[in-house]
From TrEMBL:
Protein family (similarity comment): Belongs to the AceK family.
Organism of derivation: Ramlibacter algicola
Residue sites binding ATP per the record: 325-331, 346
Any GO BP: tricarboxylic acid cycle
Record's keyword terms, sorted: ATP-binding, Cytoplasm, Glyoxylate bypass, Hydrolase, Kinase, Nucleotide-binding, Protein phosphatase, Serine/threonine-protein kinase, Transferase, Tricarboxylic acid cycle
Protein name, entry field: Isocitrate dehydrogenase kinase/phosphatase
Phylogenetic placement of the source organism: Bacteria, Pseudomonadati, Pseudomonadota, Betaproteobacteria, Burkholderiales
Amino acid sequence: MFPQRLDSPVAYAIAQAMLDGFDLHYRLFRQESAAAKQRFEQADWHAQQRAQRERIAFYDKRVREAVVRLEQEFQAGKQPMEVWHQAKLHYIGLLINHHQPELAETFFNSVTTKILHRTYFNNDFIFVRPAVSTEFIENEEPAAAPTYRAYYPTRDTLLENIERIVTNFQLRREFDDLRRDAQAVLEAMSARLVGVKLRANFQVQVLSSLFFRNKGAYVVGKLINGFNEVPFALPILHDDQGKLVIDACLFGEDDLQMLFSFARAYFMVDMEIPAAYVQFLRSLMPRKPRGEIYTALGLAKQGKTLFYRDFLYHLKHSSDRFRVAPGIPGMVMLVFDLPSFPYVFKVIKDHFPPQKDTTREQVQAKYLLVKQHDRVGRMADTLEYSVVAFARSRFDDALLDALQREAPSQLEIGDLDGDGHEEVVIKHLYIERRMIPLNIYLAEAFDAIEHGDPAIAAAAREQVEHAVVEYGNAIKDLVAANIFPGDMLWKNFGVTRNGKVVFYDYDEIEYLTDCNFRAVPKARTEEEEMSGEVWYQVGPRDIFPETFAPFLLGNPSVKEVFLRHHADLLDPAFWQTHKERIRAGHVHDVFPYEQDKRFEHHALQGAPA
Ligand SMILES: Nc1ncnc2c1ncn2[C@@H]1O[C@H](COP(=O)(O)OP(=O)(O)OP(=O)(O)O)[C@@H](O)[C@H]1O
């Protein structure tokens, strides 16, 4: 109901207090993101990782504070609906010239849904879709940095322009040899421009803040010529002498997608107008949903909001049914999907079999650990939702049976909103990108090797080799990031669109530094030797890498590839050495691009410190 008059002073005060709460949030978020530059310059990697982790909690803290203030100063929860309607309209008014209106709307939703009891809950009070446009927002302050800078080189001045692009960021640390690196970037860019006529609009556009994550800083931009646009990114790292180097020149949508993958930690970027950053990034990766771009920029709540809007929109424009996800069912999670939609939905079961010695709280804690940890491109990010309603008519009966059997505490079915149609409400669930489970991926390849014609069989053999090598690499990346995956069976990994192998089963995850990697003791007697049982003492965090083989290497072709590339994973010394390195304070290097993309002069120097 649209109020005719805005005559409630308390409504205005509520709107203003709400916006104060958001502005405080964004100021602190931005300060922490901007400080990434200094941490990078000072090579303070532990602080960088800590900040990445802690920043995730900022939003919920500010929402809680805003709720307390609104309750204390305005008894917000007791205000009549008329006042809330007016508060929303005042809020819209206050956002007209705001630089982050979409984030501020989401903040309003978060606070309002906490204050107004869910049963009163009515979409009139929140922003179901944006009320204030995010297009063409500009910062008019004279000293304001633009969202991106444009450079207009010719072929002859491209080198100096590349140098200028980098020096404009004013990093307070010396480059080892910027001219040499700019030359390498020039060569990479020139290779893209061979035989291409440069048009009147030839230019390089570069986002004016660097993107920081872990030990790297990234220049992100695009080359524009005529109607063509080529996205690029330049990773800047510290070399083993502590000098700065440009490590590579990444090009095109696929490279950028890898950099911005859902399986990596969020970037730190100093942004006044995030919507403008998202718009620019979307032009580089048109197929990446805007929600995922917001999330990659650390604005995870906005990512979640947009995901949910996209999801509702997809539901309206599709007619297929939710079903139990293909693959081996989990013991801890009940997983379902909608075939037409590229995500899976995971519900924690009410009871676990005896070999899963865990609780709902512990499982949630593990998922949270993954959210806050550097996911190094090898662990899928999850979105966590509570009280999600789906139309009953879209659920397949087998799935509903499974939910009733396995997770009845999480389920409510009925016409809860009184619209004459039944809903299925799930109390708590995680949503993550759908991948092809690695066991299914391998089984399909084995099938093709056996039954396909020679060309198909040969391709399938390559597929197996690639998947097994990637699987081992995934485990090694996790190890370097201090993660012991716990359950390393093939079914707990998935294959992404780009053929990357990513882990998704988090309930048995541990920090590597908390585990004890041991060799299987030598048998002392013949009985011990012959016994099929484990005869030695095993502590709760004891891991015996030699014992992985029987679970993983049943198939001879898998075994052959695995032993050729990753036999070290079966050696306790491999694990123990990594554990000790991490204990000693070493922060691993993560390259969100293939090693062969690195400029040669750096690859020769070895990995940066
Ligand atoms: N992101 C995903 N994409 C596609 N399928 C998935 C995904 N996540 C889970 N699955 C499917 O659901 C199954 C169970 O998922 P998951 O491994 O997370 O559950 P779990 O209960 O933790 O398993 P476990 O019993 O091994 O501990 C997987 O084997 C796989 O078939």
